[in-house]
Amino acid sequence: MKEEVFYGKGMQKVKEEDEELYQSIVSLNNAVWNGKVLDYKAQKLIAIGIAASNADSRATVRQMMSAKKELGVTREEVIDVLKVVLLTSGMQPFNKALQIANKVFE
Amino acid sequence: MKEEVFYGKGMQKVKEEDEELYQSIVSLNNAVWNGKVLDYKAQKLIAIGIAASNADSRATVRQMMSAKKELGVTREEVIDVLKVVLLTSGMQPFNKALQIANKVFE
Amino acid sequence: MKEEVFYGKGMQKVKEEDEELYQSIVSLNNAVWNGKVLDYKAQKLIAIGIAASNADSRATVRQMMSAKKELGVTREEVIDVLKVVLLTSGMQPFNKALQIANKVFE
Amino acid sequence: MKEEVFYGKGMQKVKEEDEELYQSIVSLNNAVWNGKVLDYKAQKLIAIGIAASNADSRATVRQMMSAKKELGVTREEVIDVLKVVLLTSGMQPFNKALQIANKVFE
Amino acid sequence: MKEEVFYGKGMQKVKEEDEELYQSIVSLNNAVWNGKVLDYKAQKLIAIGIAASNADSRATVRQMMSAKKELGVTREEVIDVLKVVLLTSGMQPFNKALQIANKVFE
Amino acid sequence: MKEEVFYGKGMQKVKEEDEELYQSIVSLNNAVWNGKVLDYKAQKLIAIGIAASNADSRATVRQMMSAKKELGVTREEVIDVLKVVLLTSGMQPFNKALQIANKVFE
C-alpha cells in the first residue's frame, strides 16, 4: 500500500476535519506514485534520497521502513541511494541517514 | 562519462592547486557512482530528485543535462522523478524544476 | 484567481501529458487556499514568508507579484512579513527578499 | 509577552555573558513584532509557517505553544497555516508539523 | 567597514521607513561582529562557509567580495573554507561556491 | 584525531561492506582538514557554523564535542561562531545551537 507513509494518525484527524483537503492529498498521492515510466520502487528510492538529503530524520525513517515493508527494499539498495546523498549533499546528512539505515536494516 | 557533471572549469583549477583534494574527489565520485545493486541511471535519477528538492537551479540543470546526454534519460522519466519532488517537497521546488525540465527536454 | 502563481506555462504541459497529476494539483490548490478560518490574504502572506525564508528567489517573486495583483497587498504588509523572516531566518534570506520587494513594490 | 519564545534558559546565559548581544536581540525582537500594518497574531502565524516549512521541530513546537498561550491561536488557524506549508513545501514538513499540532492542540 | 555587506540600497529604504527596525539591525550587526575571542576575519570566514553551505549565490558573492575588499582575504583561505563545505554539505553547494570564488578571486 | 566526528559505528559497517567507498571518504576527510593556509581549528569552527546554520542537531552536537575534545575549543569561541549564525541564519537555528552549546560546554 503506497499510502502508508502518509496516512498516519495525523491524517485520520485531517480526514474528519477537512474532507476536501484529505481527498486532494489522496488524489495527489495516487497521481504521484503512478509513474508513467518509472516503477514504484524506483520512485521510492528517490523519496529516500530526498528525505536523507534534507537531513529529515522522521521522513527518512518513514520512507526506509515503508520501502522495506512494502517493497522488500534491501540495505544494499539503500546504501547505493545514500552514496548519492553523500556526494551531492555531504557527510552531515549522509551520517544521519546511515545511522537510520543501520537501525531499519539491521 | 560520469565525471562530466562535477569536473567543470572550476575543478580544473582545483586540480592544479590542490592535487590531494582533487584526487580525493575523483575517488569519491568513482566510489559513489559504482552502485553495488543500483545502476548508474537509477542513481542519476536520485541525484536529479535531490537537486530539484533543494531548489538548486544550477545543480538541477547540470544533473538533467548530464542525464540526458550520458544516459539518454527522457522527459517522461524526469517527470516521474519530479512527481516525487512535488509530493515530498512541494510546489515551490517542483515548479522550479519543471521549468528547467521544459528547457532541457524541449 | 488563486491559480495564477502555480499554473504557468510549465503546468500547461503537465495538463496535456498527465491529466491525473494536473487534476490532483488543481484539487490540492483549491483545498489549500480554502481556509476554514484564515482568509486568502492571511494565507498568501504566509506563503510569502515561507518563500522568502527559503531564499527561493523565483517563488518569492511569484508570490509577491500575485499577492500585489490579486489581493492588493502593499509594501508595508510585505515588510511586516519580512521582519518575521529576518528574526527567524536571518539577514541572508531577508536581504534577498527585501531586494525583490523593492522591485515588486517600487 | 512576545519575548517568551526567544528568551529561554539559553538566553539568560547570553544576558550574563554578552550584554551588548543580548540587548541587540531584545531590540530586534521588539522591532520585528511591532508590525506597522499586520498585527502580532498575523505575524505569529507566519512564524509558525516558516518554522514548519523548515521542518524544524523545536522551533515549530515553540511557535505553536507560544501562539496558543499568548494569543489563543486555535487548531483550526494552525491547520490553515499548515495547508500553505503542504502546498509550498510538501508532505515531509507538513506531516512533521501536523504531528506537532496534534499534540499542542489536543 | 563591517556594514557593507548588509547595508545596500535595500537597507537605505528600511532606514527611511522603519527607523526602529534599522537601528536594531545596526545594533545586532555591531554586537555580532564584535567577537570576544575570535577576530573579524575568523568570523567572516565562517559567514562565507554558511552562505556557501546554503547554496545561496547572492549571499556567497557578497560575503566573498566583502571579505576580499575589507580584510584582504585570499583565494587560498576561501578554498580552505570551501573544503569544509564540500565535506559537510556536498558537491552541489561546493561547486556553486567554487564557481563564485573563481570569479571573485581571479 | 580529525576522523572522530565522521567515523562512528555507522562507518565501521561501511568499511566492511564497501572498502572503496570507505577509502574515498578517508581520503576526502584527510584532504579537507589539511588546510593550506587555515589551521584545523579555524576549519573546525567553520564546520560548527555550518552545522548550526543548518539546524542539524546531530551534526552540531558532534562538531561541538569533537571541537572541545580534540582542540580544546571553548564556549566563548563557540558563542562567537553562533553570533554569525544568528546574523546570517536567524533566531531559529541560533536558539537550537545555543541550547546544545549550553550542554556541551557547561
What coarse outline of chain A follows from CA principal-axis ratios?
A: globular
Q: Please compute the radius of gyration of chain A using only Cα atoms.
A: 15 Å
> How would you classify the quaternary structure?
homohexamer
- Distance N terminus to C terminus of chain A? 23 Å
Instruction: Indicate the percent of residues in helices of chain A.
Output: over 70%
The counted number of beta strands of chain A is 0
Note the beta-strand portion of chain A: under 5%
Structural class call of chain A reads mainly alpha
Order of helices and strands of chain A: HHHHHH
Largest interface: A-B, 33 and 33 residues
What features would you describe in this structure?
Six copies of one chain form a homohexamer. The first copy, chain A, has helices at 9-17, 19-33, 40-53, 57-71, 75-89, 91-104. Chain A is globular and about 40 Å long. Chain A is mainly alpha-helical and 106 residues long. The model of chain A has no long low-confidence stretch (mean pLDDT 92). The first copy, chain A, has six helices and no strands. Helix content of chain A is 77%, strand content 0%. In chain A, helix 3 packs antiparallel against helix 4 and helix 4 (57-71) crosses helix 6 (91-104). The A-B interface holds A 28-29, 31-33, 35-38, 42-43, 45-47, 49-51, 53-54, 59, 74, 76-77, 79-81, 83-89 and B 28-29, 31-33, 35-38, 42-43, 45-47, 49-51, 53-54, 59, 74, 76-77, 79-81, 83-89.
